[in-house]
Predict the structure.
Amino acid sequence: MKRRKFISLTGAGIAGTTLLSSAPVKIQGSEVRLTFGHGPDDSGTIQALIDKFNERHKDEIRVSWKTMSRLSNVYHQQLASDFNVESGEVEVFTADVPWTAEFSSKKWISEITKDFYRDYTPEDFLTNTLKSTYYNYRMWGVPWYTDIGLLFYRRDLLEKSGFDGPPKTWTELTSMAKKTKSATGIRHGFVFQGAEYEGGVANALEYIWNAGGKVLTGNISVAGSFGQRVIDPNVITVNSTNAAQGLMSARNLIKQGVTPRAVVNYSEMESWQDFVSGNAVFMRNWPFALGNLGDPELYKLEREQVGIAAIPTLGTSNRSYSCQGGWNLMINRYTSDRKKEAAWKFIRFMTAPEQQKYMAINGGFLPTYRRLYDDSEILQVMPSIGEGKSILENARVRPMTPFYQQMAPRISRSFNRVLRGETSGTAAVAVLERELRTVLRKNR
Ligand code: GLC
């Protein structure tokens, strides 16, 4: 995929955002070389920032980016295979929000509590994003950008078909999609991520939550954040009528011809491709999808044609929840102290408001830095960030448990089987409950 042209940061009102960008401090000796691990970024903003960091720390620190898998669970395996042999190949890296508990309990990452409290104030960050960096009363990473599941819709096509806003329920979405399809000839009604991978977990949870179901008690383990008691999720509650109906609400979209069958193999990119090539009225995706719009040479859609809204619910009595995603910056435990010091500088640079602002404007990444949600320049380029803020308040996290990697594939597998019509919602949640209980029992 071609890179977008970047909007220059020069003069973009960065005065006043220097809070965290300190003058470079020389590290004794020769240049420190750091390998940074993260998945691909089609917007090009991340490489631009790495270049800026390298320029600022010329002859002192040089960061090269090792591009890891786009798929979160595959990236996890790549990291785990290094950490299992105590390798420090990737010294500073991003970690998906559900990984903190596991990485910390396996002693793969460096604790950063002291550095964090020296250089930041917790209030600087959105609370949920910060919570995802804590485990057992300690801090293991700094929130870099956050993600929430969003409903993207074709504002122009809905207007043309006589609708004045996005749907609130799956039933509304179905009838709006059908009408818009026949009025405009567009190929698909709604696309989402149904493949067996981490994105499938996020989608499955949203269907379950938005039907009033749950997977684990509270769906949140506070895991020792902010001085609370450590509660690992240990009560599985997925075997319920609501959760079964939630999974079936996704299957019904396929049965009704609103969603293509191919969604069983879709990750973020396949759904995004459909949407940006003008082939879908609605899409569930993460905020990056909006940031990548706006270059007419590359995409058929302009930002103005696209609206964002909360994920629909099953019926009007349920509340809308979005799965909270996002990426934290962490330091590999098996890295030398000298490199750790350089890695912390890199983390400070990447998470500073100036950089987060650049990423929001140029790449559509949702900041973790609280006050950027009121930044007039960001709001001007991304008016939708205001809507994103209210949806963020209804975000739920995936279970924070050290055994998450054993649970997640069971969740996406059940979802995928329901989507394929291989099992009913009721049977799927019964099996899933048994499997998740087994994971907990075996790890006790
Ligand atoms: C996004 C989210 C991440 C999630 C992944 C699933 O990258 O930020 O939390 O696990 O998508 O595909």
Notes: Residues 1-24, 218-231 have pLDDT under 50 and may be disordered.
